[in-house]
What does this fold into?
Amino acid sequence: MPERIPTPAEIRRWRQYLADERAEASVYRDLAKRRDGEEKSILLALAEAEGRHEQHWLGLLGQHEGPPKRPSFRNRFLGLLARRFGSVFVLALAQRSESRSPYATDLDATKAMAADEAIHEEVVRGLATRGRNRLAGSFRAAVFGANDGLVSNLSLVMGMAATGVGSQVVLFSGIAGLLAGALSMGAGEYVSVRSQRELLEASAPTQVTLTAAPELDLKNNELVLVYLARGMSREAAEHRAAERLGHFTCDCDPSLSLRPDTFETADEHETLGTAWGAASSSFCFFASGAIIPIIPFLFGMTGIGALVLACTLVGLVLLGTGGVVGLLSGASPMWRGLRQLGIGLGAAAATYLLGLVFGTIVG
It folds into this structure.
């Protein structure tokens, strides 16, 4: 069979694939430098797999390899982030990049390569999920607090302006809304975290079984009731009670000994965080969002121009926060950003219309 002569279009496509495979391998190696243990090994294995794909395209290109071609903009941007940060955001971007692999429909790529890319997406999804789980609580509070400040204060400013009051009144209303909302958010988070911690403390079993066991009536062994109430089966509860009463000198059947009295004390800062820390972060996040709509009024702007600028600034921030949420969740950043924008400006528009109606009635 005569050797296949690739067309110029095929050469260009293969060279682009080659450049992107090299860039992706470099991204995984850069990410691996910032990890250790199992995660480091996984990332290096991904880089090695991309190296195998690189060899495939080199084999097809042969003498047509030519000088190194620049990777796609997406891969260049991903590489820059990987070298500088190596965070969950980079893994989320890498996950989206793997999901867009063209190998499934390109006849020049092998089925094994297409399968590799599909598996790579799941591997990176798993690594990104670890980071997402670590971020979940604080990230939720940050997004919720900032967006609440943005939307609620923009709605307040728009509603007040629509009634026809002076710009100074609008400004002071915005400042009052910022302080009231931030203090309310901070107080709410403090009470929420304290209440949750108190509920958990009230539910945590004590070590009373250790001190009370010697004095218990052996015929009416209420110790079994303790373990039944904690969710153990009767067989396991009776076995555990017998251990506590000294009938066993060893763990004869470890599978029955659930040891509910032995707790690993979780780091309270990791699970819930301190009440004051939650309160202060909520205050700051809300205030950082709520100050955006009043910036034009702080600089002396008035009228429609100030409202348009306020909506523009808030819209840009909403697009940004929505995009970050989309990125971390593996969805389209643009779609999530537009959704956030629509919700925020929709609420502000509704409040503005209500302000017009209220202003007309009072006037």
User: Anything to note?
Assistant: The two ends are 90 Å apart (CA to CA).
